[in-house]
Amino acid sequence: QARLVESGGGLVQSGGALRLSCSVSGFNLSYFAMSWHRQGPGKERDLVASISKSGDSTYYEDFVKGRFIISRDDAESTVYLQMNSLQPNDTAVYYCRVNFWGRVVWGQGTQVTVSS
Questions:
Q1: Tell me, what's the pLDDT at 89?
Q2: Which of 50, 60, 66, 74 has the smallest number of CB atoms closer than 10 Å to its CB?
């Protein structure tokens, strides 16, 4: 059974940094592309960044480009999101996601709050 568990969220001041982790179990991470998404208060869940199964290709939405870095460590079964230069509008619950053989699996999310 595919399972994703996010961690690393918290409260940080504007301009600060956090690194989120998504630990996966129940499947071999190396076979799958992965993505991070976020849902702010009263907003829809949006894509933030994605990484190919090889790790050679990454994609970032414009609102995080140049500030966030997605990476993966298949040996550790973990996907990371390094978030730098955080701003109050980055406040959201952050989720990792995998399309597991046609079934989308989400983690439970981790809260990131950026104070001004």
A1: 96
A2: 66
User: Of 59, 62, 50, 55, which is closest to residue 97 (Cα–Cα)?
Assistant: 50
The pair of structure tokens assigned to 92 is: 């959201």
Closest by CA position to 40, among listed 105, 93, 100, 115: 93
The string of pLDDT tens digits covering residues 17-68 is: 999 999 999 999 999 999 999 999 999 999 999 999 999 999 999 999 999 9
44-58: burial string, b at 16+ Cβ within 10 Å, e else:
eeeebbbbeeebeee
Nearest to 1 by CA among 80, 72, 73, 101: 101
56: which 2 tokens? 């050679």
